[in-house]
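Figure 3 (text version): structure tokens given as input.
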């Protein structure tokens, strides 16, 4: 049976801020400027507010109690956390190089974290978090996490670091880390099983550089 061709979404352009790629190969050198909103102690890009609230409220309608563990982190905050962990590892007898190598297996260096964008959210079952005392990939055994993973694209989110995309993302599987890319982009990526890195590569290949809004002057 021939494969069905799915056209790229109208908003799938490299200059779409919701598709900003931040990783170890594409690090931020300065803080991003965007409007933020706050839920409890966590803040996020205001542009994802409605979608995030709909995702969480619909999860609650399915009797899942989801908690927001982490949202926006500044580069400065990440540097403080990163330096603190390096010091702890060095106290255990590791050299600076060994400490950095070990830490980078679980924590991106300052400037390389998705959380700098304000578009990334860590979502997990509250009871599970309380019981485990922290984030764990074992959460994917829960009906609540399975629901989030299966349905997040309806709200414009993707599971940013899936099991089968570690070679592309360069990051170990995280069942709790979701990233907003827009509804049409998220559905497209889910349908074709694409990581954000793979979508960006495709957009470059298709020369989808700049989104322009059709008007009477350029239509």
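Below: residues designed for each position.
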């Amino acid at each position: 049976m021939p494969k069905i061709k799915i056209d790229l979404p109208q908003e799938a352009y490299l200059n779409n801020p919701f598709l900003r790629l931040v990783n170890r190969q594409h690090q931020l050198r300065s803080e991003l400027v965007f409007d933020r909103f706050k839920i409890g102690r966590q803040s996020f890009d205001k542009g994802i507010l409605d979608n995030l609230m709909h995702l969480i409220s619909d999860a609650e309608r399915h009797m899942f109690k989801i908690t927001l563990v982490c949202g926006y982190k500044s580069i400065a905050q990440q540097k403080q956390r990163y330096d603190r962990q390096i010091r702890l590892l060095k106290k255990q007898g590791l050299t600076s190089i060994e400490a950095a190598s070990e830490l980078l297996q679980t924590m991106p260096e300052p400037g390389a974290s998705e959380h700098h964008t304000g578009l990334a959210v860590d979502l997990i079952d509250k009871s599970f978090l309380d019981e485990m005392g922290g984030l764990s990939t074992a959460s994917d055994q829960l009906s609540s996490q399975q629901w989030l993973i299966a349905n997040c694209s309806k709200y414009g989110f993707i599971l940013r670091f899936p099991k089968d995309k570690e070679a592309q993302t360069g990051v170990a599987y995280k069942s709790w880390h979701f990233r907003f890319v827009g509804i049409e982009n998220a559905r497209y990526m889910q349908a074709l099983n694409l990581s954000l890195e793979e979508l960006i590569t495709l957009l470059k290949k298709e020369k989808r550089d700049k989104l322009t809004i059709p008007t009477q002057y350029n239509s």
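The radius of gyration is 18 Å.
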